[in-house]
Amino acid sequence: MCRSPDPAGWSISSSPRIRRGGRSIDMKVFSDLEIIERAGTLLGDIGILSSSESRGLHEGALARIESDGSTRRFWRVSRRDMSLCIIAAPAGTGEDELAESKAAWRIGNHLRAKGVPVPALYGWDGDSGLLLYEDLGDVRLHELIGKANDEHSCKPVVDHYHEALNRLAAMQVKGAEEFDVAWCWDTPRYDIALMRERESGYFLRAFWQGIIGEAVPPGVEDEFQEIAVQAAKAPAYFFLHRDFQSRNIMIKDERVRFIDFQGGRLGPLGYDVASLLIDPYAALTLAEQEDLLAVYLKALGAERPGAEEDFMKFYQLLALQRNLQIVGAFSFLYRVRGKVFFAGFIEPSLVALRDRLADNFFAGFPLVRHLVDLGLAGLKRS
User: Nearest CA to 1 among 122, 11, 9?
Assistant: First the structure.
C-alpha cells in the first residue's frame, strides 16, 4: 500500500496479471467478502478505522446500497450509527471496469481541488477497483422534486436548481483547467463519433430496433450524421460531466453535491445544461426550463464573459443529442437489464424528443421527425 501520487487520498497500487491485446489487465473477480476485506485494510491504513476495527469490518457495520443503472456494488460503512464512508466497487475487474474506477479517482480528486462540490475521496484499490468516498446521505434533488407540491416546498427545490446551475458553470470552466484527458476511461472528448455511436446510434439500436423491432429506414442515418456534424461545431474545451441530472445531484447540509462524474471528459457547454433541464425524472415545464436557462447564462457570463453567444448557437442541437441518449439508455436498461423502473420514462422522453424536433430549427430533418412519430405510435401499441 502506498500514498497516492494523485491530488489527495491513498491508493493501493495495481498489479495486472493477464495480458490481452498487448495490454496487461487483472481478470480476477473479487467477491463481496474480498472487497469488504480490502476496504477494511484501506480504511485502517488511512485512519478512518482503527487497526482492530479494520480487521473486524463485517456485515454488521455495512449496509448494501442499491444502484440505478450501474452494475457497480455499493456499501455504506457505519460505526455506532454514524456513517463513515461509502464503498464502491465494480462488478468485475475487466479492463473497462478498472479504467472507469481509476477515472473516478483521478477526475474526482481533480474536481475537488478545483472547488467543485464532489464527495471527498478517501482511497482507491487499483487491483479490485474499489473506491472509498464521503457519504453524502440519501437525499437526491430528484426526491425533493417529487415531494414539492406547494409554494413552501417548491422554493428550496428552485434554490437548489439555481445553486446547481451556478456550480455547473464553475465546474465547466474551472474543471477544464489542467484537466488531463489521460484520466478519461472512455473517450477524451465529446465528438461526432461519440454522438453517432452513443447517442443517435444508441437510440436506433436500443429503442427503434430493440423496443419497436424495426429496421432503420433509409436516410435516417444521414440526417443523424448531419445533426452530429452541426453539434460538433460547438466549442468543446470545457469540462463535461455527461450525466448531469437530478439523480446525480445529492443534497447534503442544504447544499448541492455532484456524483457520478467518472465519465467526465472535455466537451461543449450546452450538453450538461440540457441534461439537467430536460431531465425526465424532473419533468420541468418549458417555462421552468427557460427560467433556469437564464440563471445558467448569467452564471456562465460571470465565469466566462462572452461564452453565452456560442452557447445559444448550439444548445438546441446538444439538447437533441442528450434526448436521443436518454431514450436509448432507458430502452436498454428496461429491455436488456430488466430494470422496470426505467420503463415509465421512455414515453415521456420520446414525447420531449418529438416536441423538440417540431421546432423550425429542425425542419431540415424530416426523416428523423417521422421516425420519432412512428416510434411513439409503436410504443403505444406495444
Answer: 11
